[in-house]
Design brief:
- By secondary structure, the chain is mostly helical.
- It has one domain.
- It is 73% helix and 0% strand.
- It is built from six helices and no strands.
- Helix 3 runs antiparallel to helix 4.
- The chain starts with a helix and ends with a helix.
């Protein structure tokens, strides 16, 4: 069991990363109605704004896939994933504390999209 413990920990971390990727990809699906009605921090968004906010991760992943690949080759996969955790968290904090639609949309400008790409 002693030598397998690090493997179990690594596998658990990868699974948590996959869970994080899933939440980034699908976060708008269950909160769309609340955002349209202004129930989240009195933030009201229309369909166009929600579309941009929902596609931010995939657009960011498209832009960042090659740079993250190069960074992962230089620094290694483990360090690259660890370096993307902080911006990933900043992106979620922007969404959670959003007072304006731009804060939700600007998650694209944080490297939030790097984390799911780095996990792949």
């Amino acid at each position: 069991m002693g030598r397998k413990l690090p493997q179990f920990i690594a596998a658990t971390c990868v699974c948590i990363g996959a869970l994080g990727t899933g939440t980034v990809l699908g976060w708008t699906s269950n909160i769309t109605d609340d955002l349209k009605k202004g129930k989240l921090n009195d933030l009201k968004m229309n369909d166009d704004q929600l579309g941009w906010a929902g596609s931010a991760m995939t657009l960011g992943a498209m832009v960042m896939c090659f740079p993250i690949g190069w960074i992962a080759d230089i620094l290694g996969r483990k360090i690259t994933v660890l370096l993307t955790v902080f911006p990933f968290t900043i992106g979620w904090l922007l969404i959670i504390s959003a007072q304006h639609e731009a804060m939700v949309r600007n998650q694209l400008k944080t490297p939030m999209m790097e984390h799911p790409v780095a996990l792949m």
